[in-house]
Amino acid sequence: MSKVNGKNLHRLKTIINDREIELWINPSETLLENLIHHGIEIDNLCGGRGICGKCSVKILEGKLSQPSDIEKKWLNILGKDMRLSC
User: Fold this and answer.
1) pTM beyond 0.90, yes or no
2) Which of 13, 38, 53, 59 is the one with CA 20 to 30 A from 21?
3) CATH code of the domain in which 79 resides
4) Are 1 and 10 in contact, with CB atoms under 8 Å apart?
């Protein structure tokens, strides 16, 4: 964790389109919101409400929050190593 402009930020390493990217993200925002703030577009037909499943991402490692009830339904479809970025 690092402090930037008075905010505690977390380091995120991600692979998008076969390219590894390192970002500093705000833990009070969703991954989808953070990616959009960094100019990285992720499909999200439902506007980040967790109902379309288009913003799913594969988790390779790290600590995660517990999935919401809506997300748990998607995990049964997408697989246990996947999460919704919204």
Assistant:
1) no
2) 53
3) 3.10.20.30
4) yes
